[in-house]
C-alpha cells in the first residue's frame, strides 16, 4: 500500500473539498442552464417551421372544403352543404385537438444530460465520503 504525503491540515483539506464541491455545483448549474437554453432554442425553431406549415395547410384545407361544398351543392341547397361540411370538419378538428392536448407534457423540456451528470456526481461524492 502506498502512502499519500499531503502536508495540508484537516481544515485546509475540508476547505478544499468545500471549494471543489461549490465549484461542482456551480458547473452543474451552468450545464443545466445551457441544456435548457438549447432545448428552448430548438423548440422555437421547430415552432416557427410548424407555424409556416400550418398556415399553408390551412389555406389548402380551406380550398378543399370550398370544393367539397361546391360538390355537395349539386345535390342539396348550398347553405345546407356549407353547414354540413362546417359541422363535420369542426367535430373532427375538435376531436383531434382534444386528443393531442392530452398528450402534451412538459417532460420533453427536462434537462436529461444534466440530471444524469448530477446523479453521477452525487454517487461520486457518496463514494468519496464513505
Derived from helix and strand composition plus strand pairing, the structural class reads: mainly alpha
Tally of DSSP β-strands? 0
Query: How many individual domains?
Result: 1
In terms of quaternary structure, what is this? single chain
Shape: rod-shaped
Cα(first) to Cα(last) distance is 19 Å
- Percent of residues in beta strands? under 5%
Report the helical percentage: over 70%
Give a written overview of the molecule.
The protein has 3 helices and no strands. With 130 residues, the protein is mainly α. It has one domain (10-129). The protein is rod-shaped, with a radius of gyration of 30 Å. The chain starts with 9 loop residues before the first helix and ends with a helix. The mean pLDDT is 83.
Task: Describe what is shown at a glance.
The chain is mainly alpha-helical. The protein is built from three helices and no strands.
Q: Characteristics of this structure?
A:
single chain, 130 residues, mainly alpha, 3 helices
Topology:
Blueprint: H1 10-72, H2 78-103, H3 112-129
Helix pairs in contact: 1-2, 1-3
